[in-house]
Amino acid sequence: MEEGLSHNLVSGLLGQTAEAVVIGGADGGVTHVSAAAAALLGHEPRDMLGRAMPALCAALAQDGALWQGVLPAAAGREARVTLRKSWIAVDGDQVAVIARLERETAAGIDLLTGLPDVTIFHDRVQQAILNAGRLKKSVAVMVLGVDRLAMVNEGLGSAAGDAVLVELAERLRRCVRQSDTVTRMDGDHFGMVLSISAIDDGVLVAEKIFHAMGKPFVVGSRELTVGASAGIGLWPTDADSHPEVVKKAESALRFAKASGRGQYQFSSNDMNTRARARLELESRMRRALTHSEFRVFYQPKVDAQSGVIVGMEALVRWQDPEHGLISPGDFIPVAEETGLIIEIGSFVLAEACRQNAAWVAEGLPRMKLSVNVSARQFRSAGLVDEVSRVLAETRLPPAQLELEITESMLMDDIDRTVAKMQALRDLGCGLSIDDFGTGYSSLSYLGMFPITTLKIDRAFVKDVESNPKTAEIARAIIGLSKGLELDIVAEGAEIIEHVQFLRDHGCALVQGFYFSRPLPAHEFADLVRRGPMK
Ligand code: C2E
Ligand code: MG
Ligand code: MG
Predict the structure, then answer these.
(1) Same structural domain for residues 122 and 96?
(2) Does the predicted TM-score (pTM) go above 0.70?
(3) Which residue's CA lies nearest to atom 19 of ligand 1?
């Protein structure tokens, strides 16, 4: 180095050069590194100076003009590099070296992200099609382009761009199943190969990926958002070969970019329509929440002996200004997927408790209120606090409230489920297993759960008068409830024979169209005032 050339000046120069340059001293320490050299390994320049890089330092101090070896790269990975020394200066006991770094590419693996590369991508598409053909499944090929990577590279340096790519690769990997493939095709393009059973699975994964892309990327002390566009081709729906399905995905990507970026496109219009309908439903649901379009209907639970209405189930309805009254079956699954169910569920709980407290204040008899809790709501951390708060705010006696959860929610993580249920029971409210008999839970577990009620699924009521097998199952469930000292309710009683069977076999409470469909609040109150049902 020239005398008088300050450390800052050299650093400044190295920040500008496009070459990967490293300068090291005789003691083996890296004293300067160009931004390009740091980017090559995925580091920030200052990280390379601060951090010990024994292999690099040893290589710099060696005599030979060429060194090949492995260096630590970003995200805990390693990079194979070639180091070419182009200039060596000796000044007393100081040796300064300018060396050029080149990164080798290993066959099949992208060194920056550790993902398989474009050759592997094509290979996997081919394999997936062969497998799917055998299993009568479909393959979705998605090509994803990062929208603003060039801007990040230009504005913040290629090290920042590389950091984004590494994080993005990790997010993509987390969005797909283990058996699916994520590859880096080139620069800012990623290729994914997903084996799917239903076409809607393609929409689901695409949504998941776009959700993951939307979160900011943390690079150093900054938060960046880079958008993505994607094209999806489906085999065999819109292509019958491997090259064809990739071509479809790529042209769908071009279309996605041309129509404004930040979106995904299927290659077939049919699928785009479906995906749009789903997204539209989601945004209409969000609007419905802010515009108070959700209503709570009530369906009576009737004492089978006396005909007295002793309880009710709160059932949500969506009063859509354009489409009229929408049933929960048409929106709860999407609400569950998108998390909107949490807000909808909160609304139903608060409104149903408020309404029941108001009815008692108006002089109606106290009736038990059942509210459905979805899987996502049940798992959410805030549920117990929320129930406790709503009970306090509405002054509804806790014993008047019962939460319905389905059998399939029980088997997830048994210890945690039991603890959550116990916390709800400690508030004083009841817990019912909805749709009992359809969830394939092991009966041996049933005794472990602190539940108060079993609710026989409609499936075991609908032909109970004519099908001996159904009748036997219904009898067994009723017997089980007796043995475990649980309350029992049957749902879906549509005809007098259903009611008679249930009553004669000891099912005390019955709910179903025979007595009443779910009703708006005022109609339900009128029905109660009319007295016992027959
Ligand atoms: P579920 O909790 O098993 O509710 C019983 C369903 O059976 C209701 O359908 C009810 O209208 C229907 N039903 C009642 N009696 C009869 C009958 O005699 N025959 C027939 N065929 N059906 C009968 P709905 O209101 O469409 O609700 C469907 C499902 O949506 C509910 O099943 C529940 O899983 C879910 N759901 C409804 N409201 C809510 C809510 O506020 N929160 C959550 N998380 N889920 C809800
Ligand atoms: Mg229910
Ligand atoms: Mg049910």
Answers:
(1) no
(2) no
(3) 492
Give the number of residues written for the chain.
534
Give the whole-angstrom CA distance, residue 145 versus residue 147.
6
Residue 313 Cα to ligand 2 middle (Å): 7
DSSP lists the bridge partners of residue 455 as 489
Domain housing 56 = 2-103
Q: How far is it, in rounded angstroms, from Cα 135 to Cα 119?
A: 25
Distance 204 CA to ligand 3 centre (A): 26
| 108 CA to centre of ligand 3 in angstroms | 52
- Strand partners of residue 223: 218
Is 104:82 a contact under the CB 8 Å cutoff? yes
Query: For residue 69, which of 49, 96, 114, 99 has the smallest C-alpha distance?
Result: 99
**Residue where the block lists tokens 């000044």:** 91
* Dist. CA 376–CA 295, nearest whole Å: 21
Question: Rounded CA gap, 291 and 460, in Å?
Answer: 39
Q: Which two tokens stand for residue 518?
A: 């779910």
Which of 338, 351, 372 gets mutated to test ligand 1 (max ligand atoms within 8 A of its CB)? 372
Asked if the structure places residue 518 within a domain, the reply is: yes
Q: Is 374 in the pocket of ligand 1 (CB under 6 A)?
A: yes
Give 441-485 pLDDT, tens digit per residue: 677 778 889 999 999 999 999 999 999 999 999 999 999 999 999
Where does 245-400 show beta strands of DSSP type E? Answer: 264-266, 294-303, 309-320, 324-326, 368-372
**182 in the same domain as 77:** no
- Which H or E element spans position 503? helix 496-504
38: domain CATH number is 3.30.450.20
pLDDT tens column, 67-121? 777 777 766 666 777 777 777 777 766 666 777 777 766 678 888 898 999 999 9
Hey, what are 227's tokens? 């958008």
